[in-house]
Design a protein that fits this description.
heterodimer, A: mainly beta, 5-stranded antiparallel β-sheet, B: mainly beta, 7-stranded mixed β-sheet
Chain lengths: 114, 113
């Protein structure tokens, strides 16, 4: 049962335009959402997060939007740069017991075309 | 550079064998988590250790076990290997168990024949 879903395996965007990566989740216990970026031959690196008490969080060119009623979140990258080309994982976790069991989606491969 | 290293980079084993994968974290990273990433999938949480004790586990059988040592190194042990255990194994360490402060290593690619 895939509790975090990224339905677009890949996305191509022109440099300078907006990239929008989408993610859906099914588990109502998820309370904290994260995006990770992964380059080939490297481990994922944390990019941005959002708590369920917010609907938007910004960090430079990256903005994450959360729609709790729809169980949907999205990552916006503006403007997109060639160095943003990577696999992006959406992830979610509940706050529980002093640790966070992070559940990942299957990833979206973003290609930013110069 | 995350300061988290894993060894070996690649490993080939046969079904039924046992394997030990290693992870070395930064000083001060009291928490280490292990993930399994099968081809085309996202990382799946195996378990997390905090100060040498397991404090959370995903849906993995007991033949997946771990150890964490005081020198910020850790191990993932898998017994009775199955073909489906072929995957990239990632460790992630951090000062707490939070997902936004965990730093991933590059992973160990395990192939089971």
């Amino acid at each position: 049962d895939q509790q975090v879903k990224q339905n677009s395996p890949s996305l191509s965007v022109q440099e300078g335009r907006i990239s929008i990566l989408n993610c859906d989740y099914t588990n109502s216990m998820f309370d904290y959402f994260l995006w990770y970026k992964k380059y080939p031959a490297e481990g994922p690196t944390f990019l941005i997060s959002i708590s369920s008490i917010k609907d938007k969080n910004e960090d430079g060119r990256f903005t994450v939007f959360l729609n709790k009623s729809a169980k949907h979140l999205s990552l916006h990258i503006v403007p997109s740069q060639p160095g943003d080309s990577a696999v992006y994982f959406c992830a979610a976790s509940p706050y529980s017991g002093g640790y966070q069991k992070v559940t990942f989606g299957t990833g979206t491969k973003l290609q930013v075309i110069p | 550079e995350t300061g988290v290293t894993q060894s070996p980079t690649h490993l080939i084993k046969t079904r039924g064998q046992q394997v030990t994968l290693r992870c070395s974290s930064q000083s001060g990273h009291n928490t280490v988590s292990w993930y399994q990433q099968a081809l085309g999938q996202g990382p799946q949480f195996i378990f997390q250790y905090y100060r040498e004790e397991e404090n959370g586990r995903g849906n993995f059988p007991p033949r997946f076990s771990g150890l964490q040592f005081p020198n910020y190194s850790s191990e993932l042990n898998v017994n009775a290997l199955e073909l489906d255990d072929s995957a990239l194994y990632l460790c992630a360490s951090g000062p707490s168990g939070r997902g936004d402060t965990q730093y991933f290593g590059p992973g160990t690619r395990l192939t089971v024949l």
